[in-house]
Structure formats: C-alpha cells, structure tokens
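Lab notebook, design round three. We kept the backbone fixed and only want residue identities now. Task for the bench partner: fill in a sequence for the structure below.
Input structure tokens:
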C-alpha cells in the first residue's frame, strides 16, 4: 500500500479540498475549521461547537500546538519505526507540560502485522511523561489484510477513533472576565469584614495593611491559577480567522475569552500593577493613643494627623503633601472618636475606616488602563454582576461629607464640666457634681478606653455628645430632678456661675449639632 494514498485519504476526510461541506467554515492547506450547532439541554439558544484541525508543521511546532486539545498521529507503512518514533516524540515534547492530551494512533498497518502492544512498544509511548500525554488509543484503517472497505480504508474505524479522541480531550477552563480592581475589592471586603467585627481598639494600622496586601496576593494567585489551568493557550489562534459578521464569530465573541488571554505578556503587566499597589508597614508607634490626657487632647490629635500625613507621603508615596494633609484631616474628622474615662480623654481612630479611604486611592491605579481586565476560574458564589457591585463601604460616600459629629465638634462638646472634666472654682478646688448629676465617666471601668469602645455596637459615634446635649437641655428647662436638687444647695453663687457656663455651652452645642436632632 502506498503511504501517500493513506495520507491523502486521511486529509480528505479531515481537511476537504473545497468548502463544499455544510459544516466546514474554513478550509485551506493544512487547516480546517468545522462547526456544529447543538440544542441546549436546558432549552433556549443553540450552542456553537467549533473544531479546528491543523496539519503539523515540524518547522514551527510551538505555533502548531497552540490551543491543541488532542493529537492524531498517522502510523505509516514502509517507514522505519525509529523514524516515526522520533517524529512523534518531537511532536509530543512540543506540547506544554500539564496539557495531558489524548493521543490517537491511526495505523495504516494491519492489526495482524502490528498489534497495539507492538505499536506502543515500538513508539515507546510509555516513555512520554503523563503531564503531556495522559491516554492513547490505536485504531486501524483496515480490519484485515487485503480487505477493502469504503473504497480502501474504513470510515467507521476513523469515526470511532475521533469520538474517543473527543471524549478524552481535557475540558477547557470555565472562566469569567473581571476587572482587576473589582477582584481585589472582592477579597478585601471579606478580610476587612473580619476586622470590622473586632473591638476597634484591637485593630491597628498594620492589621489593615496586612489585609489589603493579602487581598492583592489572593487576586494575583487567582489570575495565575486561571492561566496555569490553560497550558495550551486555548482558544487556538485560528479562531480569529472566522468571518467577522458570521453567527459563529458572534458566538465566539460572546462566549470565548480573548485570544492569548493566558499568555505571559498579557497577564504580567496586570499582575505587576496589582503587586505595585502593596502598602508598606506603618512604622510609627501608636501606643501613646492608649494613654489618655486631660489637657493635651489637641496635641494628640495633631500628632496622629501628622503620622497619617507622613505615611501617605513619605512612606507609601500615595499622595503629594497638600492632598495628604487634606485627606488626613478628613479621616480624622470622620473616623476618630473622642472617648472619656475618669476625667481623661482618649482619641480612638477607626483604622479600618481610615484605611478604606487610603485603599480606594491606591486602587485607582488599576482603573487607569482599560486593559486591566483579567480572567479567573469561575466561582459558583460570585457572579459578574456581584463583582460589578463590589465597592468599599466608604467609597460610595462623598469625600468630605460627615454623617455624624466631627472630631472637632466632639472635642468642643467634651469641654463641658457635666461630662466629667475637672472644673476649678474660684478657690481652685475641683468641682464635684451632685450625686444626681454623676458624670458618665464614673460608670466606665478604669481599665482603659479600649474596653468600652467597640465600633458598631454600644459605643456609637454620637452617644457621648448626645448625652451632654440632653443634660444641658434638662438643666436649662428647669424641670429635671437633678436641677431641682441643685436649687436646694446653699452655694447659690456657684450654681449661678455654673448655669451661666452651661447656657453658653448649650448655645454652642445647639448651633453645632442642630442638624443631628
């Protein structure tokens, strides 16, 4: 039998010379693209299935195997075993490690002359690493020697071998396309949610920074995992040859990833940009925040604001100085509380909320380039619509809008004597409130401010200011029980002085806090 005839017959079946087949989209020397429209099992739209068959060009094997899901090798009669073995191994070694492709040996030889075990032994198929070749099968184009079926070779045998090949082909990865920033935010919100459930005093700046950097690492790992799941660089580049306005091209555009989506030149710039978003550690010592002060609160506030400004400019290089000063001021007003315990004030920053703003600024680097979209393995608990809605809590708010008393307002309100600040009378003695007017500080344990401060629970942003406002209002109206008791005191001159101060302070609070009541 003539080798050219076997080769020509096989090519005529897989790569017709003319586009006279109903299911052939492209046919050219060394290439054919077949299509098949199938009914969706769940109903609805048809499913477009495309098969690309390429004839191996041993001069450019890397391009030949790009996007390959299976290998078919013609075992010819009249060619030495060693030559065919070397040719096959050269082809298989060009397959990327991890591809795990099936191999179909189409034998021109009769089974009587070369049974499957002989073919496997002569071609040394067991020597090929399973990371490239995970299974193989042998089909014979002739059932027995000198027998001719369908003109010369068996269509049925070839068809059965191709079905086996299709069934053994590894599945393509199921992907979803996401924006890099949204992917990071998806992981970041989960990590910050854990910190948000903790006592606000148990969370420091480096806890938030570690969570952010971990979210970046998780995002990079997901991108790398998707690329690793596609060692053959599916889909094959020949898909790009489809007619632009055809139904098949429309289906490819809607349902397949972009060509070369997993190649290093495509994903490395995105991964590098994500990695460049990492924050350095917060080096300034903030332990002094746990030491309260009765006179130096403003200096502590300025010190904390200076630490933030320094971190955003010199340490993280996030902002230029004017913007950093403005942002640090906004963060202080929105996310730092003033707490009182036993005549000492504590400034308590909510580091999670502070760094959420910083993270939003940093992640703007990932939206400057429209190419910062990536493919990840699809998650059953995550849809594209959910990713599109992912946002850090504070990013949806106005940058300079306050929904609760600012830090400055709380500091101003905190100067009132009825809140427990030591107030000296004319003789220099500390004023002691009457039992009916006991300050809130006496109800607070003396083990430090952190024991009573828990974001989102008992210690709200405005409770302590509201308390001062309500007590002043009761005193002014003259109807509360504590005030009636004070009127019975003998030191009426001190009471008059106290009430005058209260009225002045109340007017100031009414003006500052009227929007909240």
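Proposed sequence:
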């Amino acid at each position: 039998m003539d080798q050219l005839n076997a080769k020509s017959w096989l090519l005529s079946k897989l790569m017709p010379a003319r586009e006279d087949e109903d299911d052939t989209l492209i046919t050219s020397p060394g290439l054919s693209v077949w299509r098949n429209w199938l009914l969706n099992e769940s109903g609805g739209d048809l499913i477009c299935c495309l098969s690309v068959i390429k004839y191996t060009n041993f001069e450019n094997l890397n391009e030949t195997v790009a996007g390959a899901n299976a290998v078919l090798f013609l075992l010819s009669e009249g060619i030495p075993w060693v030559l065919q073995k070397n040719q096959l191994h050269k082809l298989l070694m060009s397959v990327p490690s991890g591809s795990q492709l099936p191999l179909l040996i189409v034998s021109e030889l009769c089974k009587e002359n070369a049974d499957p075990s002989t073919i496997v032994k002569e071609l040394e198929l067991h020597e090929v690493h399973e990371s490239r070749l995970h299974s193989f099968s042998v089909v014979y184009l002739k059932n027995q020697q000198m027998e001719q079926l369908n003109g010369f070779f068996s269509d049925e045998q070839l068809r059965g071998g191709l079905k086996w090949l299709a069934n053994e082909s590894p599945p393509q990865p199921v992907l979803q396309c996401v924006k890099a920033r949204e992917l990071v935010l998806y992981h970041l919100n989960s990590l910050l949610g854990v910190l948000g459930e903790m006592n606000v005093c148990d969370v420091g700046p480096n806890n938030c920074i570690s969570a952010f950097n971990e979210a970046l690492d998780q995002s990079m790992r997901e991108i790398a995992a998707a690329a690793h799941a596609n060692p053959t660089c599916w889909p094959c580049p020949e898909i790009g040859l489809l007619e632009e306005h055809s139904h098949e091209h429309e289906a490819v555009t809607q349902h397949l990833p972009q060509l070369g989506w997993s190649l290093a030149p495509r994903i490395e710039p995105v991964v590098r940009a994500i990695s460049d978003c990492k924050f350095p550690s917060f080096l300034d010592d903030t332990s002094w925040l746990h030491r309260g002060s009765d006179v130096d609160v403003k200096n502590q506030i300025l010190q904390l604001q200076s630490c933030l400004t320094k971190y955003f400019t010199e340490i993280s290089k996030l902002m230029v100085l004017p913007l950093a000063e403005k942002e640090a001021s906004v963060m202080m007003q929105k996310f730092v509380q003033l707490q009182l315990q036993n005549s000492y004030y504590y400034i308590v920053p909510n580091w999670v909320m502070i760094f959420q703003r910083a993270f939003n600024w940093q992640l703007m680097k990932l939206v400057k380039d429209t190419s910062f979209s990536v493919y990840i393995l699809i998650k059953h608990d995550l849809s594209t619509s959910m990713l599109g809605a992912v946002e850090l809590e504070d990013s949806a708010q106005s940058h300079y809008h306050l929904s609760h008393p600012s830090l400055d307002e709380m500091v101003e309100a905190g100067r009132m004597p009825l809140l427990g600040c030591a107030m000296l009378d004319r003789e220099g003695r500390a004023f002691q409130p009457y039992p009916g007017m006991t300050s809130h500080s006496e109800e607070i344990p003396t083990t430090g401010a952190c024991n009573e401060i828990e974001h989102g629970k008992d210690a709200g942003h405005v409770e302590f200011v509201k308390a001062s406002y309500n007590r002043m209002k009761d005193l002014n109206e003259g109807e509360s029980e504590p005030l009636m008791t004070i009127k019975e005191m003998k030191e009426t001159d001190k009471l008059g002085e106290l009430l005058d101060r209260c009225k002045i302070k109340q007017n100031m609070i009414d003006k500052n806090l009227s929007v909240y009541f």
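Keep this in mind before ordering anything: The beta strands are 24-28, 31-39, 46-54, 71-75, 101-107, 133-140, 175-179, 336-341, 344-349, 373-377.
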